[in-house]
Amino acid sequence: MVQPRSPAHLPVKTSPVPKGPHWPLALPSVKSVVKPLAAAASFLYWCCQSRLAQSFQVVKDIVFPSQVYLRELNTFREKLEKLESEFSKLQGALQAPPVKKDGPVHITLKDLLNVKLKKTNSNLRMDKMAHPKSPSPARLSAANSFDEK
Questions:
Q1: Cα dihedral 36/40/42/47 (nearest 10)
Q2: Beta carbons of 105 and 99 less than 8 angstroms apart
Q3: Rounded CA gap, 112 and 99, in Å?
Q4: If you ran DSSP here, which 8-state letter would residue 8 be given?
Q5: pTM summary value
Q6: Which of 30, 56, 63, 149 is the most exposed place for a label (fewest CB within 10 A)?
Q7: CA–CA gap between residue 49 and residue 71 (Å, rounded)
Q8: Could you tell me if 80 and 88 are in contact, meaning their C-beta atoms sit under 8 angstroms apart?
Q9: How confident is the model over 13-56, as pLDDT tens digits?
Q10: Phi and psi dihedrals of 122, rounded to 5?
Q11: Are 145 and 138 a contacting pair, CB within 8 Å?
Q12: CA 36 to CA 39: how far, in whole Å?
């Protein structure tokens, strides 16, 4: 049987700071300290750079107003191109399919827009119509034909 040792038999540590993996206070590594600082510095740089860019843009717009008009013109051109493409799609949808000879005639909006009306002479129409003062021809009815006998 092995007898238990008393504390007097244990070796005494002579170094005041323990070495190796048993160190109770672990110092942070350089990477773990530098990484958050670098991220904060990067974010601060980005914020300052974007603010400066906005400030320079405002100054440039004040000094050169034609640039503002040019940007607005380009924006309107893009919107106009979109509207023109949508309009052409709608026009294509409104056109009727090809006309079939064996059925009713389909008239499209394009056909109606292309119709040219002819100017008529209103005097010609009045000449062809019966004048209200002229005597009308006698009317014959079945009752009149039986009364004449």
A1: 160
A2: yes
A3: 15
A4: G
A5: 0.33
A6: 149
A7: 23
A8: no
A9: 555 555 555 656 777 788 888 899 999 999 999 999 999 999 99
A10: -70, -25
A11: no
A12: 5
